[in-house]
Automatic annotation (TrEMBL):
Keyword Transport: yes
Keyword Transcription regulation (UniProt): no
Entry membrane topology: Multi-pass membrane protein
Pfam families membership: SDF
Location in the cell: Cell membrane
Keywords, sorted A to Z: Cell membrane, Membrane, Symport, Transmembrane, Transmembrane helix, Transport
Species for this entry: Clostridium neuense
Protein name from the UniProt record: Cation:dicarboxylate symporter family transporter
Transmembrane residue ranges: 7-27, 47-67, 79-101, 153-171, 198-216, 228-249, 310-343, 355-378
Length: 421
């Protein structure tokens, strides 16, 4: 009799369903929450443990293989330009949808469950003063070991690029360094595969804890916002990304989703794009993109290409303004776009980034920051969806940049698609 095997995607979905059931059964039970929390925390810690070594080693190997600083600069300029255009479009689309759908009108504010946002306030106050020049200055690390310890991705990317260029510049002497970091990268991919085996347990703990804290009923008064955000995300992925994939990358967004189905489910259930970074890089290489481009575009995209977060933040800002009956003029909304573009880049490595960005942004356009407390209870539900967009967006960016550079191996990509059919 043939043994039935259940893939990782099925196991993660099963963990999600069981987590929702257990969370609903033990709603408000602090004892149950104390048992669920470690399951999710351990899994996220395992992911955070491997992200920095993979990013650092992949960038060193990738940049050193490019060699020429002009080539790295050209790819970097194209990448950042693409990121800025797509992110700006996401913000504008979010504002348009929020103004048309008006998710914040007709809601009784007294029905909304307020949640404490004190833990985010200090971070937001500090980060709201970050201007474009501050962001540029902070990209350069004063102490790389401190940046590695704190998990500050942008300074790590900067140092890795410089280290990779230096490795390429010393020629034959640098080959041993490239071999070392290539070995480290392969070892970390093996570790990643082992960690993914416990992903269903981590998902079970994370979802179970969320539902047991806030309950399914927290979705009811804010259902209009949830539907608006999910609808906007659906539109952005299948229309905007779909058009970019077809006419720019000469592929299909459905192919990317098919390749990353396990990573998309994992990103959705954990609300963490870091959880899928290693496998995303591995699969994009199998899909035909060169490692040199993947190792630069993906880590950079995790700080600069947060399309899902940008889309959500613009909708949430208008939602809170509508709750308070505040009309925002076109000029004010343009100002909101500019502020969101800056603050989202300045806080890319902060936990709960989208939530903190809202706190840092709302006051600048005259929206009461206290309004963020109304959506804190469902932020996790929204965070899950926007994380998926970030993952798909960065995967698509790899193919776009590879195509622009004439380095995309279409035949290799098609063979990989056929192998997983």
């Amino acid at each position: 009799m043939k043994k039935i095997k259940f893939g990782l995607a099925f196991q993660i979905v099963l963990g999600l369903i069981l987590g929702i059931i257990v969370g609903a059964v033990f709603y408000g039970n602090t004892t149950a929450q104390s048992y669920l929390k470690p399951l999710g925390d351990i899994f996220l810690r395992l992911i955070k443990m491997i992200v920095i070594p993979i990013v650092f080693s992949a960038l060193v190997v990738g940049v050193s293989s490019l060699g020429d600083i002009k080539k790295v600069g050209k790819i970097g300029a194209k990448t950042l330009l693409y990121f800025e255009i797509i992110t700006t479009f996401a913000i504008i689309l979010g504002l348009f949808i929020a103004n048309v759908v008006k998710p914040g009108t007709g809601i009784n504010m007294h029905e909304l469950a307020k949640t404490s946002i004190d833990t985010y306030v200090n971070t937001a106050k500090t980060s709201s003063h970050h201007g474009a020049l501050d962001i540029i200055v902070n990209i350069v690390p004063s102490n790389i070991f401190e940046s590695l310890t704190n998990g500050e991705l942008l300074p790590i990317i900067f140092f890795s690029v410089m280290f990779g260029l230096g490795t390429a510049a010393i020629g034959e002497k640098g080959k041993i360094i490239i071999e070392l970091f290539s070995g480290i990268e392969n070892v970390m991919f093996w570790v990643t595969n082992q960690i993914m085996r416990v992903a269903p347990v981590g998902v079970f703990g994370l979802i179970g804890l969320t539902i047991s804290k806030f309950g399914v009923k927290s979705l009811i008064p804010l259902g209009k916002l949830v539907l608006t955000v999910y609808g906007a995300i659906f539109l952005f992925v299948f229309v905007v990304f779909g058009l970019i994939a077809k006419f720019v990358a000469k592929t299909s967004v459905f192919k990317i989703i098919k390749i990353l189905k396990e990573e998309i489910i994992l990103a959705y259930t954990t609300a963490s794009s870091e959880a899928v970074l290693p496998k995303l890089m591995e699969k994009m290489e199998k899909f035909g993109a060169p490692q040199s481009i993947i190792s630069f575009v993906v880590p950079t995209g995790y700080s600069f290409n947060l399309d899902g977060s940008a889309l959500y933040q613009s909708i949430a800002a208008i939602f809170i303004a509508q709750l308070y009956g505040i009309h925002l003029s076109i000029i004010t909304q343009i100002n909101l776009v500019v502020v969101l573009m800056i603050t989202s880049k300045g806080m890319a490595a902060v936990p709960g980034t989208s939530f903190v960005v809202l706190l840092a942004t709302l006051g600048s356009v005259g929206i009461p920051v206290e309004g963020v407390a109304f959506i804190a209870g469902i932020d996790r539900i929204l965070d899950m969806a926007r994380t998926v967009v970030n993952v798909i967006g960065n995967s698509l960016a790899v193919i776009v940049i590879s195509k622009w550079e004439g380095q995309y191996d279409r035949e290799k990509g098609e063979k990989y698609i056929e192998s997983i059919a």
